[in-house]
Amino acid sequence: MTLLAQKCDQKLGQILIKQKILTEQNLSRVLDIQQRNKKNRFGDYLVENYSFRRDEIEATLKEAKSNPEFSKSARIGEILISSGITNREQVNTALINQKKTKNEKIGSLLIKNGLISEAQLLPVLAQKLRVPLLDLEEKPPSANALKTLPQKIATRMGVVPVEFRDKTIVVATTDPTDLVAERYLRFITGCTVKMALASSKQIFDVQRRAFDWGRRKTDERLGEGIGEVEVIGGEKEGNTIRETDPTVIKLVNKVLLTSIGNVATHIHFEPGSGNLKISYRTNGEYHLVYETPETFRKAVLARLKAMANLDISECKKPQSGKILLQSNNMKLEYWIETTPTVEGQEDAVLRVVANSKPLPLYKLGLSDDNLKKFKGLLNKPNGIVLSVGPKKSGKTTSIHAALKEIATPKRKIWTVEDPVEIIQPGLRQVQINHQTGLTFSHVLQSFIRADPDIIMIGEIDDASTARIAIDASLNGRLVFGTLETSNAAETVNRFIQLGLKPTDFAEAMLAILAQRLVLKLCIFCKEAYSPDFHEYEELTRSYGLELSQLDKIPTYSDDLLLMRKKGCLKCKGTGYLGQTGIHELLVFTDPLSRLIANRQDVSDMCRMSAKENMRLLRMDGIQKVFQGITSYDQVAKVCTWKVGV
Description:
Layout: H1 3-18, H2 24-39, H3 42-50, H4 54-65, H5 76-82, H6 88-102, H7 106-112, H8 118-129, H9 143-146, H10 151-157, E1 160-165, E2 168-173, H11 179-189, E3 192-197, H12 200-211, H13 218-221, E4 229-232, H14 246-261, E5 264-271, E6 275-282, E7 285-293, H15 297-307, E8 319-327, E9 330-341, E10 345-352, H16 368-377, E11 383-388, H17 395-406, E12 413-417, E13 428-431, H18 440-449, E14 454-457, H19 463-474, E15 478-483, H20 488-497, H21 502-508, E16 509-521, E17 527-529, H22 533-543, H23 545-550, E18 562-564, E19 576-587, H24 590-597, H25 602-611, H26 617-626, H27 632-638
Parallel strand pairs: 2-3, 11-15, 11-16, 12-13, 12-14, 14-15
Antiparallel strand pairs: 1-2, 4-8, 5-6, 5-10, 6-7, 8-9, 9-10, 16-19, 17-18
Helix pairs in contact: 14-15, 18-19, 19-21, 20-25, 21-24, 24-25
């Protein structure tokens, strides 16, 4: 920080103190934070802001020092990319945001730490800088002004042109002191630029309305960045359908390819009266992204069927299939399900499975204690490890992360899945096909004779599959599997209800990892605030008062800060960006196995597990609330609050 900038920040702080908006103590604390940010190393920044594990980064950097591939001057980001811990996009984003943090102004830090609000800061800042303070709700931007600046530039810079007259543009921004931005705007517009101050929320709201995010016309979107797309095993030869029209093909390719960039898990095609609505499911939530004219309605559905080799003429029965694409040397896979709906319509839902890659264990969101225990289980020679939860809770991702951790050329690993969502080199993976009789139990019987060390079962949902899994583990194999149950305790009951002997089950089991997915607060805009005592009390009561003290949950004070959503361009105003897991890990100890063998009540199991340091789903979620990773609303949405659940 330059001496001039430091004096400027102190001067602003003194004005806020004089107006009794801020205290001397709080100003001193934030100035210390500002100085610490200046000295923050890149590795520290990744750990504190991006949920990377410090031990993982340190181990990688230590290994790189002895690796001749890396020079002494190699940057940390380059080493982490080469080691597969992160990718180029994440490093570039982190570098940009580290620079922003290093240059963060005192006003921004005061708001982020919950010491003042933006509404309190803006009038003081406008008076100090002698710039106009605009209310964009009372006086919205003119249509002429909005045309002066391209959408991409306005959204990237976080500004809005509000007035245009006599070759002069008034631009609303949250940082009127940014001379570089002012010069750049003057250069690209060829006009005189006058910077004015406005709230970040009002700027964001104006941008959302003016640029109509997510609802632009189909024909405007068609030309955006579609690369070469090859349909693998696509339309049958000789099939002369009208849906081969280039515009339809271009639209469908665009929808499929864009889903990868948006990290969508599903694509929904819903014909309506006079249009076709296309939506993505991302981060577990459902968003409308395209709306086509009526002329596209039947053509798009027929095109999807042709790509999946389905019967185009059949519209009265459900059909299932698979679409394989290749674009820019990347293979993409989609599972399609068509369903007849009212008025002779037909819906299609595509499950995006091609862009899935195994995550390293440390990226699952496991607490330090759970991660240590879970890693220890992976070195066992035999037994069963289950990942349980409802649909779309990340069960398969967790199991594949475990397999990635232990896969070596010396281990033979077989997986049977429906569908195979994550492909890992070195694993022998089998896709279920019910039409040909290739079921889980049939494949598993073959696995037993195929000399495996480790077996992964995509879904254990019947007695036959469960018995084979237990027999395999009792005969010296390590078995992983998933199951749709609510929590660890219910999983024990489910296996016993399938008719399995409690003694065999108790002997075979190593652990049950129950999980849910919650949305993460956007790292670019989440803001700190001081919770009132009622909110704090609700959190600790939900956690359990006795265990909250034992686990050193922060005590209530005026200095206690939590994080909450805000909304920005990066998260499209939602306040959330990405997902993480919350978990409970039930490890089968000898006393617990004896309880199960003796058919004891589930509540007894829960009490014993709590004594042995198992923490329930909601507890893990509440810990992540105190860590600023997610919000209490997200945890409450996926967890029940009954004791033992």
